[in-house]
C-alpha cells in the first residue's frame, strides 16, 4: 500500500499553534512574495493558497527557461523556504483520525507500506517518529524529489515507492487526498482510494475518477476489519 502523507496520515499545515485554520495560505503568500522579489511571479498563481502548487509551477517555468538566472535562484530559495516551514510544521502536525489505527492494522497483516509525498522527507519522518509509526513503513518514504518538476502528478515518485516484493503496480493500492495523487496513480496503473475531510475535496476526487472516496480514515479501518480474516 502506498500512502500520500499530508492529509491521509497527518495535517502537516494545521495552523492551530498560530491561531490559524491552516498555515498553507500563509506559506503560499510567502513563496509568491519571494518569487515577486526576483521578478519571477507567475501572475496566474497570485491568489493560490497551495504552497506545493506554487513551488511546482514556478519550478516548471524555471526549467523551461533553462534553470539558471533569476528563475533558478528564485525557485531554489522558494524550495528552501518551504523546506523550513515543513520541518517546523512537523512539530505541530495533527494526526488524521483513524490513520494510525489503519496503518497499524495493515502493517500487522504483513502488508508492505510505503509513502509518496510532495513534502520534505525530513518532515515526513519526524511526524512518523513522533506518532510511533515509522516502523510500520518497511517500504520507501519518498519525499519531494530533487527535480521539482517530478512532483506529483508526475508518476516518478510512485515508481520509486513501489516494492518488487508486492508485485506490479496493479498489486499496490494508493491512498491520497488530491487530484494529483489520483492522476499519478492512474499514470502507473495503480488502484486508487480517495480520502478527503471536505465535501469539495471528495467531489474533486470523484470527478478525477476515484471510485472509492471516504470522508474519514476511520471508514478504511472498519472496511479492513470486515475484509481481513
Helix and strand element order: EEHHHEHEHEHEHEHEH
The amount of helix comes to 40-55%
Number of individual domains = 2
Q: Based on DSSP secondary structure assignment, what is the total number of beta strands?
A: 8
Name given to the CATH architecture of the largest domain: 3-Layer(aba) Sandwich
Q: What does the radius of gyration come to?
A: 17 Å
Poorly predicted regions are none
Bin the strand percentage. Answer: 5-15%
Mean pLDDT: 95
Major sheet: size, sense and barrel closure? 6 strands, parallel
Number of helices: 9
What is the assigned CATH homologous superfamily of the largest domain? HAD superfamily/HAD-like
Note the gap between the termini.
18 Å
CATH class of the largest domain: Alpha Beta
Strand order of the largest sheet: 5-4-1-6-7-8
SS class: alpha/beta
Q: What is the global morphology? A: globular
CATH topology of the largest domain: Rossmann fold
Topology diagram in text:
Elements: E1 2-3, E2 10-11, H1 24-37, H2 51-64, H3 69-89, E3 94-95, H4 99-108, E4 114-116, H5 121-130, E5 141-142, H6 156-161, E6 174-176, H7 179-188, E7 192-195, H8 199-207, E8 212-214, H9 218-227
Helix pairs in contact: 1-2, 1-3, 2-3, 4-9
